[in-house]
Design goal:
The chain is α/β, with parallel strands linked by helices and 164 residues long. It contains seven helices and six strands. β5, α5 and β6 form a beta-alpha-beta unit.
Length: 164
């Protein structure tokens, strides 16, 4: 069963959860052959009902000790733009679509997503463009992220956060 795994990490990103479970997004996923949607909703207050996406099988949880198995089983990972979540998905070798929370004040997440996109490791969008991105995305353009580039990644994060 082709599976999409969505993670918001430890944050609250209700807009992403609401958008991915909308009938338009569920239809876009179904049209691409996905049959199962697993949501890790973190501290969010929006908890979709199991029958809210009749086109696709929906599973929801807040937290687990590890989401490694969920990522391993996924055919596509959709994540917030947190560095840890991005690195975990890329390290698992999964196609990654990052949804940037454009409501954040100092949005370093956008810089991270843009750089990893420029390097062809992921696709990114915002909640307002998520459904269209699901319809038009070409996952074949993505290049594997080579683990061991952690120093380069750490330097990028330091620069983006103004530590250097």
């Amino acid at each position: 069963m082709r599976t999409v795994f969505v993670t918001v990490g430890t944050t609250c990103f209700d807009e992403l959860i609401g958008t991915i479970t909308s009938s338009e997004s569920a239809q876009a996923l179904k049209a691409r052959g996905y049959e199962r949607l697993v949501l890790q909703i973190g501290r969010g207050s929006f908890v979709p009902e199991a029958d809210s996406c009749p086109q696709i099988k929906l599973e929801v949880f807040r937290f687990k000790d590890s989401i490694a198995e969920d990522m391993k089983q996924a055919d596509l990972v959709i994540s917030h733009a947190g560095a840890g979540s991005c690195l975990e998905a890329l390290g698992a070798g999964k196609p990654l679509l990052v949804v940037v929370n454009d409501k954040l004040m100092d949005n370093h997440q956008l810089e991270l997503a843009q750089q990893l996109h420029v390097d062809s490791h992921l696709l990114y969008c915002t909640c307002s463009t998520l459904t269209e991105t699901l319809r038009s995305m070409d996952l074949s353009v993505l290049q594997p992220y080579q683990p061991g580039q952690t120093k380069i990644f750490a330097n990028f994060l330091d620069k983006a956060l103004g530590v250097q």
